[in-house]
Amino acid sequence: MIPVPSGVRVWIATGHTDMRKGMQGLALLVQEHLKRDPHAGDLFVFRGRGGALIKILWHDGLGMSLYAKRLDRGRFVWPAAEGGAVALTSAQLGYMLEGIDWRNPQHTWRPTSAG
């Protein structure tokens, strides 16, 4: 798991991204298309066309990091909006990285009584 400090903003780049891009290409995408500073300490999440691979770009104040995760089965849940960024909480990012629908996570079990 990525060590996400509290208070860090998480941005999902809507649509799909060319997953051949590395740190510099994704940082340029953040700067030019999302109109955000890639060195501000925010996390920027990108998904490929197939939906099973995401890349996360993060500048921690010392340097740029690029994380990647591929699901063996299924796809990452992605917003339907095009051309921009959607803000997530770090908890929602955690759900996403586990392959859970971050828009409406469901408990698998709830107690029926207190005693």
Automatic annotation (TrEMBL):
For this protein, the record's InterPro entries field holds: Transposase_IS66_Orf2 (IPR008878)
Pfam families given in the database record: TnpB_IS66
PANTHER family recorded for this chain?
BLR8292 PROTEIN, PTHR36455
What NCBIfam families does its record include?
IS66_TnpB
According to UniProt, the name of this protein is IS66 family insertion sequence element accessory protein TnpB
| Source organism phylogeny | Bacteria, Pseudomonadati, Pseudomonadota, Alphaproteobacteria, Caulobacterales
Instruction: Provide the gene name from the record.
Output: tnpB
